[in-house]
Amino acid sequence: MTFSRYLYLILLLAFLTACGGSSPTNTPTNTPPPPTGRPLVLGDISDEPIETIAGTQPIADYLATQLATYGISHGEVKIAPDLDTMITMIETGEVDIYFDSPYPVLVISDATDAEPILRRFKYGVTEYHTVFFVAQDSPITSLDELNGHMIAFEESFSTSGYMLPLSYLIENDYNPTLKPAPDAIINDDEIGYTFSTADDTTIQWVVSGRVTAGAIDNVTLGRLPPETQEQLRVIAATGDVPRQLVLVRPGLDPNLVTAIHDELLTMDENEAGQAALEAFLTTQFDEFPEGATIALQRMRELYELVQLSDQ
Description:
This protein has helices at 3-20, 49-66, 83-91, 102-112, 159-171, 199-208, 218-222, 226-229, 254-266, 271-279, 292-310, and strands at 38-45, 72-80, 97-100, 115-122, 127-128, 130-135, 150-153, 176-178, 191-195, 213-217, 232-237, 241-242, 244-248, 282-286. It is an alpha/beta fold. The protein has a six-stranded mixed β-sheet, sandwiched between helices. A six-stranded mixed β-sheet has the order 8-9-7-10-6-11, with helices on both faces. A two-stranded antiparallel sheet has the order 5-12. It is 41% helix and 23% strand.
């Protein structure tokens, strides 16, 4: 072999080694690095988790972006099937923020020491109350005439379909008594109540005569078709309470709680916040007009009346 051919083979071998020598494990990828902070977790109770997450994730993402300086890397949404599960998730720190009407919020707060911090304008509604109603052709004209009759409530963890109507009856010296079914026996000195599990069912039971009266919130009543409203007659109404509250779990950094409070208050003032609010079916958050202490004191009075009646 001539020297020139030998040199040629050496150069060829060096070229091939340079082309194929890099390890495939060193090839750059487009995989993003894992988050370095912790998530901010919003919780909800729902039997439609996919729909609920779709509506809640935008506000979780918005808050996470605004709170990055507090070590928040991203937002998450966790769904519980029931109140007891949500209590556990807040106790263990799995959920940081929870939104609901006053009664379930107070149940969770009582069990976990979580703190209500703001009002939520769900569907743009700041406050609501419960109305007692009968069929339009019913001879009943007042709550006094409901003794010996049955009224339908929604469910045992509802604000407008349980806490408000039950506490109202108790405060006005009636004798509401839980019954297992609409056709249960009722004494003349008591107002029987049973659960329908849904506002639509409550209305159907009243219109069909299965129960004498029902209790739903005024917002739901106002949204009924006119032909349905014409079949009903309101005979009494409770006082107003906030439509929904914002609850933060115990153990959160107080500075982070303050930042969450401030971001929720002002998110309706910018385009990104407004988009997240729209997906969350909310127009804004605000402070309790009369102050948190006074507002929560009245709600807790009603809550405790109901808790005592359950014992």
